[in-house]
Amino acid sequence: MRPRIAIDAMGGDEGPRVMVAGAALARHRHEGFQFLFVGDEQKLKEALKDHPNLSASSEILHAEDVISGEDKPAQALRKSKTTSMGLAVNAVKTGAVSAAVSAGNTGALMAISKLALRTMSGIDRPALAALLPTLKDSDVVMLDLGANKECTSENLVQFAVMGAAYSRIMHGFDKPLVKLLNIGTEEAKGTGTVQDAAAALREAIGLSMNFQGFTEADKISTGEVDVIVTDGFSGNVALKSLEGTARFVTDLLKRSFLSSLRSKIGFLISRPATEMLREHLDPNNHNGAVFLGLNGVVVKSHGSADEKGVANAVEVAARLVEDSILERISEDLTKVRQLNPSTTVAK
To answer: Closest Cα to residue 289, out of 279, 303, 278, 277?
Structure first.
């Protein structure tokens, strides 16, 4: 049986309309999906009228309140019991659903999820992981993307284990190629934290990953690495730089093609190639960041995601449940402790 997924229907820029439409698209692709839509009951009933295929596979849980994009994590925690986000995550905690998907406030979602689900045994802090497009056929897994501004070497080791497990599920790799993000590839480069994490990962030869030291930011999109590990501060800066560069390139191409009649003719000739570029860089095709390290699956959809993006986030959540992401992470954490008895994996 397919997973039952809670949808925080009030999160995101367009709320119930897009969240319900995205779930409908996901169910069209995967007939067995079941949903618990959490939010304003009347608005959800209206949205569901456009998608009769969901009627037999969905329930509605009414939520009186919504967490806004301006709410601080502490504010969100105080009112979580009456909000669509809080109730969706709580459904994971109680076992009513297998996973939760929300397009709401990232900081609030992390705080609520961490308090409700707690971190897994052997994990100090959860990390935000996402799939980023590359020049190769498969995306690169990158974490942390903003959940933890400062990290210890133990945190980075844990992130590597979680990221490798995520990559094995999403791409089917037996031993994903893992590297730490650094300012150079030489062993002497970087902070003591990064070097200590690298030393611990080199010793842990029994893990289900192929650890090969360091990579630099200009290699993120080349596809040479399957998993890139870093602290949340550096990861978030790198992510925003990549997103900005993608927008810059597409906007520059658009401006260039409209600059003259000759350019417009050139656009018509090259349109298949530009459409391929647009499709490859479309964030909706890579939507669905995951809070790894929690006792449950929570997926963060981008607030501006369209129905295709929401469907992708739902499919990510379902796949992680079906392929037992929590068990895979636990198995590798055990190996770290066994192979490195002198290394503290979690304090």
So the answer is: 303
What is the three-class DSSP state of 216?
Answer: coil
Q: How many CA atoms does the CB half-sphere of 281 hold within 13 Å?
A: 16
**Quick one: which H or E segment has residue 256?**
helix 232-257
Structure tokens at 127: 């990390």
Write the pLDDT tens digit of every residue in 256-268.
777 777 676 766 6
CB-hemisphere CA count at 13 Å for 4? 16
pTM for this prediction:
0.85
Say what angle helices 307-322 and 16-29 make with each other, to 10 degrees: 50
What values do phi and psi take at 47, rounded to 5? Answer: -65, -35
End-to-end alpha carbon distance in the chain? 37
Q: Is 155 helix (H, G, I), strand (E, B) or coil?
A: helix
Asked if the peptide bond before residue 144 counts as cis, ω within 30 degrees of 0, the response is yes
Nearest Cα neighbor of 148 from 139, 137, 159, 161 is: 159
pLDDT band per the 50, 70, 90 thresholds, residue 330: confident
* Eight-class DSSP state of 80: G
pLDDT tens-digit map of 125-177: 999 998 888 888 888 999 999 888 889 999 999 999 999 999 998 888 889 99
CB < 8 Å & 24+ apart, contacts of 45-53: 46/16, 47/9, 47/16, 47/17, 47/19, 47/20, 47/21, 48/20, 50/20, 50/21, 51/20, 51/21, 51/23, 51/24, 53/24, 53/27, 53/28
Q: Give the distance from CA 45 to its chain's centroid.
A: 29
> Which residue has 């994490």 as its token pair?
197
